[in-house]
Amino acid sequence: MPFVQLVLGHDWPRIEKVDRPGEKVLLELVKAAGFEPVDVLPGKLRGNYLDQDSRPTGDTFAVNSLCSYRVIDGRGEPDHFATGWLDCAVKRVHFGRINRDEDENELYDAVCAEVERSVPLEPVQLGQRIVLLEYPPLPLLIDPKYFVNHTRNESELSGCVGVHAGCRGWMDRKTLTSAEDQIICRVCKQFVRFPKQVQTYGELRRCRA
To answer: What are the residues whose beta carbons fall under 8 Å from the beta carbon of 28, sequence distance 6 or more?
Structure first.
C-alpha cells in the first residue's frame, strides 16, 4: 500500500511537508475512507472544546498532532474530522512499526480495516425528495479519537436517527399510531410513515424501496 510505504519512509515528528505525489497518496486514502476532500494542505489544525450547550469554551486541542496536513472540504474549509482521521491513520502505521514491530503486511491490513470501518452509512431514500443521512459520529475521548464505528444497516433505528439531506435538519423517530411510526425533520417538518415493526436501518431501507 503506498500509504504505508509513505508513512514508513518519513520521520513524521520532524517533517512538515511531503512531496506532491505523497500528498496525493494522503488525499486518496481520505477519499477511500468515505470523506469528500478536495485537497490536503500542510499545516496543523486546532479544535474547540465545547460546553454542555455546544458553545466554545475558549480552550482548544490539537486535531492533528503527528501528521502535519489538514484535509480541505468542498467549501475550501478544513474538515476537522477527516483531518483527525488522517492523523490517526499516520499514527497507526508510525507507532505500529515503532511500538509493535509490525511489518508492512500487518500495517496494511490494519489500515484497510480502519478504512472499511470509516465508510459512512449509505444514504436511505425515504421518499421522492427525502433522503436520510447518517448521524455524524463524534470523536472519542481517548486515542485513537477519530477511529470510530459508523451506523450500519443492522444498527438500531431509534431516537435521533440522522440528518435530512435537504435542509440538514436532525431527523427523529416518533410514535404515530399503534401500527406506524414516523421519521420527521426538526427543521422543515417533512416526514415519512413506516411500519412500527421496522427496527433497523436496513429494514427501513427495504420497506421504503
So the answer is: none
